[in-house]
Write a structure and sequence with these properties.
alpha/beta; Aminopeptidase; Glucose Oxidase, domain 1; 3 domains; 4-stranded antiparallel beta sheet; 18 strands; elongated
Amino acid sequence: MLKKNIKSIAMMKWAKSLFPINRSITGDGVRQTINFVKKNINKNFKKKKIKSGTKVFDWKIPEEWKVTSAYIKDVNGNKICDFRDNNLHLLGYSKKINKILTYKKLIKNIFYSKENPNSIPYYTSYYKKKWGFCLSYNKFKKLNKKSKYKVVIDSSHFKGQLDYTEMVIKGKSSKEILIVSYICHPSMANNELSGPLVIMALSKLLKPMKYTIRLLLIPETIGAIAYIKFNLSRLKKNLIAGFNLTCVGDKGPFTLISSKEGKTYSDKIAKRILSKTPNFKVVSFLKRGSNERQFGCQKLDLPFVTICRSRFGDYKQYHSSDDNLKIISEKKLRETTKKMLLIIKEIQKNKIFFKSVNCEPFFSKYKLVRTTRKNANSDENYLFNLAAYVEKNYDEVELAKLFKKSKKQISKKIKILQKNKIIQELK
């Protein structure tokens, strides 16, 4: 299953190179990240792009954003904050400005967090053009109310593109396992980098198997919506199980954000593997907040879940400058990678079946039941139920669990149904 040993992969080294990049939903930061992945991780990642203005369902690909510099100084030339010191200081997608403002006017565009008074919070305004800066609350309190401030943001919005990248490990089957994360946040480690780091590691570890594996790095939300728009027929036809990875590098216990109904094959496989880990948690789709919002509902009915350690929003460093390289580790990233390898292996080794006929099969025709009977006996009921439950969300393990049988007993009955062409294996 593996090309190399996971111990030979140094994800934190990659993290140190990627952390300073100013990523957003479009722009040079995303392209720098993709180029790093292609050059340093796996050349088989393919670059993809979608033009600004392209309509994708209810949304539209926004203009590209580029920022050269951004800072605030007081009238004496003392620096208050500088985008070059920490890219979280700038409100994401800020428009251009070069003005001297009073304190009263300045603070209308200053963002801070009282809950984490020493950290710089992360704010964006993707779809309404405005400008702003983010400061720690303690620094904000020290601003001189009587002073004036020089505010400079050298940025531009223009017709460009949204970039993403994917790698396909072709299997014997065109049926797919999809593993997704996002590359659209600036310098944050657990929330931004941990998911892509695990996907990068998987790209170096995995080799072709039964089912095709697709590794996808996209801007969150708009990238997911755009990807679905142009790949919907393939997703509906071929997707067996999909997993979004986010916040998977810290010390928190593994957490599953379930699908809308919590009953897809992705839910079942993730629980099967992750329930063996200490303090494993399952949270409702009501707690969603990442790409499961797109792949996992909105009329699509795709088998898709999100896997975290500490769920986004549930750890104090989330969306702030405290979400730095100190809160993720090689050890935890490798643990997550190993769990994803187990999930992939579990899907690859177990068979899924589907019915070849609509409605209930005419079992008498196949001489699988008695033609004269008052009621079905236990063996006949077992066959009826097995044929009824065969579908995309049940592999042999799930069927065995449902009917309280061994996998060997299930396989024996399945062979009977296969022989009579009542069911077929998913291939």
